[in-house]
Amino acid sequence: MKNSIALIAIATLATGLSAHAQASTMSEVPSEAVQYSDLDSTRSHDAALLFERIDAAAGRVCGAKYKVGSLAISPAWRNCVQVAIRAAVAKVNSPAVTSYAAAHDAAPGDTLVARRN
């Protein structure tokens, strides 16, 4: 069993929608290893914990969540997070993690901070 998975913010490089697109080589693209050697990815509780770790790491590697001066979540950030999560879940290759992700993948990392009326 693998004990870590690397998340890479490849979506931002491919779309050219953020500062990460300035990277001249793949080694400059942000990445983060998610450790899960302490988890049994076949158990539903551990699958949920692993998904939360993946979601948090994706949010970090994808850069700024909000555009400067805005409360709106950046579409580039949202896309990057979704692509990174899907890639990491596929690499883990665990039916329990895949099932959990499918049930919770509508808007990973989304939190409403404020709303204007």
What does this structure look like?
This protein is mainly alpha-helical and 117 residues long. It has one domain (4-104). Helices cover 44% and strands 9% of the residues. The chain contains 4 helices and 2 strands. A two-stranded antiparallel ribbon has the order 1-2. Helix 2 crosses helix 3 (75-92). The chain is globular. 28% of the residues are buried.
Question: How many runs of DSSP E, i.e. beta strands?
Answer: 2
Mean pLDDT across every amino acid position: 76
Q: Tell me the strand order in the biggest sheet.
A: 1-2
Structural class: mainly alpha
Largest sheet: 2 strands, antiparallel
Question: Short description, anyone?
Answer:
Helices cover 44% and strands 9% of the residues.
Question: What labels describe this entry?
Answer:
mainly alpha; 117 residues; globular; disordered C terminus; 4 helices
Topology:
Elements: E1 4-8, H1 10-15, E2 31-35, H2 44-61, H3 75-92, H4 95-104
Antiparallel strand pairs: 1-2
